[in-house]
Specification:
homodimer; alpha/beta; globular
Chain lengths: ~280, ~280
């Protein structure tokens, strides 16, 4: 999916909601445990319940990988289930990968080259620490995206991301990451992760990357404010994908979990529509 | 495996060699392609050929993950094959993972909790960008190790790792990573990745982390010098694991690949023995 198509879907669905698919066997409704593949059943119900309101899905690879081979099978089935919806949803592998060039090339094949691994994601999240040659192998894949970590939503973001860099007009590490890495690709094949818990920083970030899409986790369970994210971060193309995981997935732990997930997704979409109108995207 | 046992193995084998298991289907000898699982067959031959000279093995997860589910099966069989040697070799998942706390906890289970994922590595490589809570879930596993990226062996290391940090007596980012993260664990459960292509930096690094083990990739195919690594980086417990991958794995592409791999490993071990004696570790 290219940038134009993504923006088209946002306008059509009046939403910039990304649903995080981070299923935990201990948290999913009990009645699903009788199924052959409870994780896939859960994802299937969540996708069906939210597809009208979501423009993106983001499986967090950690949750699948930790189940061993059965986890990868559940992930594969989930992506296959999304196949008929490929023109309307952007699919992100939240993998936070990154290694020296020839290893990053392997990770890129994992997530982008269906012939090799069975997967065909639109984007993968990548860690910046190892620099350009750890990121560029992902950018070599046509019509695929890197979503680079800039400013994350966790407490540990304070450890290194806010360190002041010498001789840079007071720039902090996350700002140098944005400044330097934005030259590796374009707004057509790179996005950035910016945590919603750091919403006030979006104003500074927009000075460095006015056009790039930002993937914003941390709304909902992690406490970020959707209104602040829109006020500080939205650009004329929207430029935002806001992720919600736990608040949608676990809106209810009972038989009505899919209905409640749909209600939660609709609530977010309705609020998003207000901001899309406020900033004249639609 | 604890630190004392690791040092014991280094002294016994007179080696600090780590063999990187990064098999590529295009590079392994043709005759193995007839086997049911060529990747596992290749690893089995490499392990048998090098076990006398290696104190550690390091599968690079990128290479397995990119083959999809068959790749994970080859990796599982490889680790199972190492089972009888567990007391004499340290096994590292070179995965470069790292995410917010609850996701890192999932990655830690993947590599450390056999009951959950089938894997039981001794250590996993972790990226530092997301800070303490992205690393600490790995440290909660008893007798397991985090190997944190500090200074990597690739060209992209120059992009961020060498940025000067304000108000830090001229420290660069990789030095701040060492300084700050060394308080998260101890020399009993943390190591650092320091590329051999940056050997002269080992002197500075030893001022910050005199006792920690360093995992040093980049000797051989990437051009780093083993002598420099030992001269600048060795401490009284050795404190080094030097990795070689391609120079051993692909010493020959013919039927004699295992013999040639053994010769290459022995050559490195013989050189390592000289440095272990020079610095009175043995």
């Amino acid at each position: 999916m290219n940038r134009k198509e993504l923006i088209g879907n946002i306008k059509k669905k009046k939403s910039f909601l990304c649903v995080g698919l981070d299923p935990e066997i201990k948290k999913i409704p009990r009645h699903l445990l009788e199924k052959e593949d409870p994780i896939f059943e859960f994802n299937k119900c969540i996708i069906s319940a939210t597809i009208d309101y979501a423009v993106a899905y983001k499986p967090n690879i950690a949750f699948y990988e930790s189940m061993g081979i059965p986890g990868w099978i559940s992930l594969q089935k989930t992506i296959n289930y999304l196949e008929p919806y490929r023109s309307e949803v952007f699919i992100i592998a939240d993998a936070k990968r990154g290694d020296i060039g020839n290893s990053s090339a392997q990770y890129a094949r994992t997530y982008f080259d269906k012939k090799v691994s069975g997967f065909d994601f639109n984007a993968v999240t990548v860690a910046p620490y190892m620099g350009e040659d750890s990121v560029s192998p992902f950018l070599e894949h046509h019509n695929k995206w890197v979503i680079l970590l800039a400013l994350t939503s966790n407490k540990g973001a304070l450890d290194f991301q806010f360190l002041n860099i010498s001789n840079s007009d007071g720039k902090r590490l996350f700002e140098k990451v944005l400044e330097i890495s934005s030259k590796w690709g374009t707004a057509e094949n790179m996005m950035y992760v910016v945590g919603a818990t750091q919403a006030e920083m979006l104003k500074e970030i927009r000075k460095i990357v006015p056009d790039h899409f930002l993937l914003v986790p941390g709304v909902g369970a992690q406490g970020g404010s959707l209104q602040q994210v829109a006020d500080y971060g939205m650009n004329h193309d929207c430029g935002l994908l806001v992720n919600a995981s736990r608040s949608i997935l676990y809106a209810s732990a009972e038989n009505d979990f899919a209905v409640k997930a749909r209600e939660e997704a609709k609530k977010l979409k309705d609020e998003m529509e207000i901001y899309l109108r406020k900033y004249s995207v639609i």
